[in-house]
Design brief:
- The chain is an alpha/beta fold and 191 residues long.
- 25% of the residues lie in helices and 25% in strands.
- It contains five helices and ten strands.
- The chain has helices at residues 30-40, 78-86, 106-116, 144-152, 158-164; strands spanning 3-8, 24-25, 28-29, 46-51, 64-69, 93-98, 123-128, 131-132, 136-140, 167-172.
- The strands form two sheets. Strands 1, 4, 5, 6, 7, 8, 9 and 10 form an eight-stranded mixed beta sheet that branches.
- GTP binds at residues 8-10, 20, 100.
- Its cofactor is Mg(2+).
- GO terms for molecular function: GTP binding; metal ion binding; molybdenum cofactor guanylyltransferase activity.
- One of its GO terms (cellular component) is cytoplasm.
Length: 191
């Protein structure tokens, strides 16, 4: 089973006011926590999906590849970014993590991967207190045609996509910190 690790880090961070993936927690940039969780589980390749404007700000790492959205492709939402990155990499599964989750752990990634072994699901998505977390999830390559079909119809909502495929929802406790994401300046209070 091949699993590519993809960190989505090309958004505008409009609610945060500046590129949040470069904010730090315990002397590490937010995006580095996602990369490290992938490395600890030996995912390969590990990819950061971003855009040309943000690329120069990432630390160079020989274990990380970059997939760059062209200017005309940038800021079209996470479903587009997922599809763009997934179609550039040959893998059976794609583990998607966002760049703004400084509490993500290698244990979380390991648990999710264990559910993919021999699975016939199209996606394995965590749920916490009835909130679905599609940007901390695994997607099988067989989900790509449905993703493309929706994008071709200019449908960009991940929830619509999830309703169209066979999803295993994995429950996590309400107090699991892994799902704390930083979208606004006031969210920094969680750190």
């Amino acid at each position: 089973m091949t699993i590519a690790g993809i960190v989505l880090a090309g958004g505008q961070s409009s609610r945060f006011g500046k590129p949040k993936m470069f904010e730090t927690y315990k002397e590490k940039c937010f995006y580095e926590y996602s990369v490290e969780a992938f490395k600890a589980n030996s995912l390969s390749p590990i990819i950061i999906a971003t855009n040309q404007g943000l690329l120069p700000h990432f630390k160079r790492d020989d274990e990380v590849e970059f997939i760059i959205e062209q200017k005309s492709e940038s800021h079209q939402g996470p479903l587009f970014a997922m599809h763009h990155a997934m179609t550039k990499v040959d893998a059976e599964w794609y583990f998607i993590l966002s760049c703004d989750i400084p509490f993500v752990t290698s244990e979380f990634v390991k648990k999710m991967i264990s559910l993919a072994q021999g699975s016939s699901y199209d996606a394995i998505v965590p749920i916490q207190s009835d909130k679905v977390h599609p940007l901390l999830a695994l997607y099988h390559q067989r989900s790509l045609p449905k993703m493309k079909k929706l994008l071709d119809q200019d449908i960009r909502k991940i929830r619509v996509f999830l309703n169209e495929i066979n999803v295993l929802q994995v429950s996590f406790s309400a107090d699991a910190e892994v799902f704390v994401n930083i979208n606004r300046q006031e969210d920094m209070l969680y750190l």
